[in-house]
């Protein structure tokens, strides 16, 4: 079956900044994303856990966005600025999708 | 009852014991934990119930001129305490400007659960307080953040300034003040307060089996959770707290409380109201301000401000502070 | 008390004010939110408690012949209302057949929280109602869905029919009727009703501090959540509602209520029971039917049916509708 | 009341009916479900409330020498029952050594909700029991695990031994005993017990509207959830239970209860305490032990031990076992 | 260490249809999958959020399935039909696993 | 924009063993990971669901770790031992990141 090559962005970012990360995506033409919760983790700042935590600080969100290669550079430019001082990271993976039009 | 007897009695209250249980469990690395949505629900319940209680009391007793005075005093305290805290921290702690400003923001702002514990201690002693202290609590959340950001930015390093500048040009740069003021906790607290004012004691009666009767028990469970979080934080991050910073976390609340008491005396609050203004001034935020700092002052280290506020100041206020502030309010104002 | 006085009193009930708080918070873009598992738990609690209450009341007062009549009336109303709604929508709204059918399904089916708010308003007025109205509510969930699907499919476009056909050949094509009837909400409501019938008032007494005392308070919190959801929906999707569709959302409930009252009169329900049958007929589903539509009628736009049901009809029923339906029941039946 | 009348009355209690509703819903493939954080919260509530209740009662009535005897008896039962269960299973069931040991661990350990249901049944009959039975319950959690692991490992196949050996060299190999003893449930139960002892009846009074009044209702909801889980487990895994294994799940509890009663008689517990020791001995763990087995005995099949404990033994104890054990305690000890 | 090439399917689909998507996987021989919850997102239909929502409508689920390349065509054929009228999308990514037999 | 090639490890493992899987990562030099919850699934052992479940047994966790290729062999060696008798699996995917230093 024919599939189309796209880029899968996976952004793990501290929850208080997740909204801004999404705004960056939208601004750079990524008009679809999905946000997920994470439970706990380990990073440069040591361990963290969201269990029992009430506020957004100290929690990490995962943002998933499948988009086209041509949008990638702009998105990564802005994300690099955003992530310079915030916890988290960004990965880009190659993926295939079934419908080219909707990305 | 003198302040020591009060403190001793306070130490064996179910509230404090639940916090201690959580703290001990976390320090012993037990896997006891409260699921995150449940912790949020407990917090929503407490805000709803305490807001409603304040509003109902205002509906019952009316408001007098001190209301405006108290609100004004709260705003001033919230703006003033960070300045003093910042100067003190810069003088004694060796924290960077940014970290000192972030810590200062927490101490100017308030912790609503400390406030709730204060009302509960007052209730146990049969001391009344002005219902609108809930509104004062809401007012005190935000000014500290503004002042602290000003302190931090007024002397940011060139790189920090440049980074902030560049970040500010990103789309979606949040309108911080709007976000703080429309923060879920504040909206719920103020909203429940307003509902309480509208429905009054008769209307509140209808839902009292939900908002009043189980209140203390829910508070116990929430404090268990706070003990768990505080213990976890201490375990992983107490190493980031130098002795002077620790000292700050233990002493600053008493200075804040003294300012709060003085302001209460000027404004003319009752003993109970004065004690609560002291509690608010002494308490340090651990929900709203940390989140605001991560957005607006990301270079400040959360391991310092969160651990200090939640792991040091909160337990101190809960166990020793609250009874002392109440005793002081009784001594100075009665 | 006349219907306007009732409505005015209703507007300052804690329930309505909590809904308004949620709505206002969402419209002001506050980040106040109830965690999803908590919202589910509140809903489970309400279904459990209201089912139990109905069953206990049936155990206490017994059933008479009107039970069967009421159940039959409920089923007929649930099947009939979508037909009328569909014709009306096609005549005035310009919605496609599919969208009109989907909307019609919502108005034939019921909203259990509207029902609960209705029982609570009756309780406040000291008006009794038949305990088995809970069972009538359960019966009214499903027929509307079947009828609406028939309306939608009977005139599907060739492409839609082809797509539906192809999809129907996929494995795991759900047995819609089975899913609707064994839907968690219905099972819990009917199950709790049955338990109430079995344990009777004496058994229910044991758990009344859980199922009865905090009921109104829990309802308030759930309505806060519904306000938040409704506000969010309105904010993002009110643009999908054309004026005639909006009008439908405001007027259709009154037509439904009138049918419900007429049926109640024929069946011989008490004033309270008639008011509840009117409430059920007037209410529009926003949990079970939307999910069923996404499975069985995916080409219908949820932005229309969900926003209309939750953002327009629900608030109208909660604030204005319920007191009017009760007053009408009193006027016509007493 | 003889044991059959007790059992019959028990079958129509709201608790048992809620469990039955959950079981029926799951077997009928309804999508009714309790969100996971809510189930955890219900369990936290029950542990907190039952621990507090036990501690308060100890504070009120003091402890006597039987306390130590009961704790010792609990530890011995927890260590002994798995040995007997293991021998019996190897003799009749055809389970592998590893599976037999894993099942045995569950039956030596305890199910706290069965214990809670037992206290609730005693309460309904007006039979008192020693408050420290809560502590006995906590003590009985762990020994069974140690014994069962010894049984499993003492005759592991060479490949299993090699695999376990290799795995044991991985970093982070958990300290199983530490994890079991600092398990959240045990810490909460024992901690709440200790808090109850410290605050005593006067302190407990303050939070009784939270810990006492809604207790039975919360238990009902938790049992609804357990019914759902048990039903789901039975549906997918009853095929893994051979007739002899099923038989074991139905008969072993009675043998355990008999041992518990004998121990209670030796130790000198009251009728209520003896009934609870029987309940604890008869009950099978379904939270702590399964998790420990997955870590320490991964080659044992959870489809067997979980389904047997939760799907067979728990319902049997809830419906038939508890009234029989109480009746037996009354017959033998009164 | 030797690894084996497989395909990682990631399906984001509206929750009311997740069960059917899983049935499609099973029918096409994918005998293992994992379902996760998502919090909120943005798509062609605008923004959505699961917060406070009681029903399944208006929520999105993520289904993860690692499978062999030869099963892919059949799975995608059926998913294409399913996703034509439902919200969500499907991505396929190359991945490596440690044990070939179990996929 | 310049990006750097890394490896994305995705481990699905039964919850009681998740802590140990994380310890394995840390021991092999993977100093950052994120743990997420999963809802339900199907596998060799049949279907499972976390809904309403109180204990850790019978639930699955997802562990995400982005790391460098040179750490992969060691990690996979240990994970192979761990996963031999536990439920779940491990996938490795190629991905690109924006900052090389932090992985
Ligand atoms: N390209 C994408 N990347 C990430 N999430 C997506 C993407 N497309 C759709 N989604 C998710 O699926 C939901 C429904 O999408 P849609 O069908 O476009 O309305 C969105 O709200 C997102 O949560
Ligand atoms: N390489 C990584 N792989 C997986 N998760 C990571 C990675 N780096 C950071 N994280 C997650 O992001 C959080 C913050 O990371 P850091 O900015 O390194 O403190 C960590 O606690 C992890 O949850
Ligand atoms: N190939 C796979 N793709 C997605 N999830 C899987 C896969 N294999 C196993 N799982 C998940 O891991 C659980 C345990 O798998 P198993 O060890 O096969 O019983 C399953 O129920 C799934 O949730
Ligand atoms: Na303060
Ligand atoms: Na209706
Ligand atoms: Na036992």
What does this structure look like?
The complex is a heterohexamer, with three copies of chain A (103 residues) and three copies of chain B (334 residues). By secondary structure, chain A is α+β, with helices and mostly antiparallel strands. In chain A, helix 1 packs antiparallel against helix 2. The longest helix of chain A is centred in the C-terminal third of the chain and has 15 residues. Chain A has two helices and six strands. In chain A, 55% of the residues are buried. In chain A, the strands form two sheets. Chain A has a four-stranded antiparallel β-sheet with strand order 2-5-1-6, covered by helices on one side. Chain B has 334 residues and is mostly helical. Helices cover 80% and strands 0% of the residues of chain B. In chain B, helix 4 crosses helix 7 and helix 6 packs parallel to helix 16. Chain B is globular. The model of chain B has no long low-confidence stretch (mean pLDDT 94). Chains in contact: A-B, A-E, A-F, B-C, B-D, C-D, C-E, D-F, E-F. The structure holds adenosine monophosphate (3 copies) and sodium ion (3 copies). One adenosine monophosphate sits at the interface of chains F and E.
Ends distance of chain B = 14 Å
Helix amount of chain B: over 70%
List the uncertain runs of chain B: none
Oligomer: heterohexamer
| Low-pLDDT runs of chain A | none
Question: Shape of chain A from CA axes?
Answer: elongated
* Averaged pLDDT of chain A: 95
Helix content of chain A: 10-25%
What would the principal axes of the Cα set say about the shape of chain B?
globular
Estimated share of beta-strand residues of chain B: under 5%
Order of helices and strands of chain B: HHHHHHHHHHHHHHHH
């Amino acid at each position: 079956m024919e599939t189309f090559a796209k880029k899968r962005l996976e952004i793990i970012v501290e929850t208080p900044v997740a909204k801004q990360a999404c705004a960056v995506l939208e601004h750079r033409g990524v008009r679809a994303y999905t946000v997920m919760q994470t439970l706990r983790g380990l990073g440069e700042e040591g361990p963290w856990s969201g269990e029992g935590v009430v506020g957004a600080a100290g929690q990490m969100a995962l943002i998933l966005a499948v988009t086209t290669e041509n949008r990638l550079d702009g998105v990564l430019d802005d994300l690099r600025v955003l992530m310079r001082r915030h916890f988290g990271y960004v990965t880009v993976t190659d993926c295939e999708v079934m419908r080219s039009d909707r990305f | 009852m003198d302040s020591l007897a009060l403190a001793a009695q306070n130490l064996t209250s179910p509230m404090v014991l639940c916090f201690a249980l959580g703290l001990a469990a976390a320090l012993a690395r037990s896997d006891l934990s409260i699921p995150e949505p449940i912790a949020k629900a407990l917090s929503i319940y407490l805000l709803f119930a305490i807001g409603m209680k304040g509003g109902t009391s205002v509906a019952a007793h009316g408001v007098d001129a001190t209301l405006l005075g108290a609100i004004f005093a709260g705003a001033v305290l919230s703006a003033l305490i960070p300045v003093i805290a910042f100067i003190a921290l810069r003088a004694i702690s060796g924290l960077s400007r940014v970290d000192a400003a972030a810590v200062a923001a927490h101490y100017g702002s308030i912790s609503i659960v400390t406030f709730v514990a204060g009302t509960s201690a007052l209730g146990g002693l049969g001391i009344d307080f002005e219902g609108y202290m809930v509104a004062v609590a809401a007012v005190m959340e935000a000014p500290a953040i503004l002042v602290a950001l000003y302190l931090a930015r007024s002397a940011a390093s060139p790189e920090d300034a440049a980074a902030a500048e560049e970040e500010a040009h990103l789309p979606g740069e949040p309108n911080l003040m709007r976000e703080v003021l429309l923060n879920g906790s504040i909206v719920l607290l103020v909203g429940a307060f307003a509902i309480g004012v509208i429905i009054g004691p008769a209307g509140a009666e209808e839902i009292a089996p939900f908002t009043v009767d189980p209140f203390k028990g829910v508070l116990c469970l929430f404090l268990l959770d706070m003990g768990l979080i505080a213990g976890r934080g201490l375990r992983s991050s107490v190493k980031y707290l130098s002795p002077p910073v620790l000292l700050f976390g233990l002493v600053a609340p008493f200075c804040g409380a003294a300012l709060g008491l003085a302001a209460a005396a000027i404004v003319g609050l009752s003993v109970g109201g004065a004690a609560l203004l002291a509690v608010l001034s002494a308490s340090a935020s651990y929900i709203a301000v940390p989140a605001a700092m991560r957005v607006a002052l990301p270079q400040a280290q959360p391991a310092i401000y969160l651990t200090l506020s939640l792991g040091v100041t909160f337990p101190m206020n809960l166990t020793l502070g609250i009874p002392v502030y109440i005793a002081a309010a009784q001594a100075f104002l009665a």
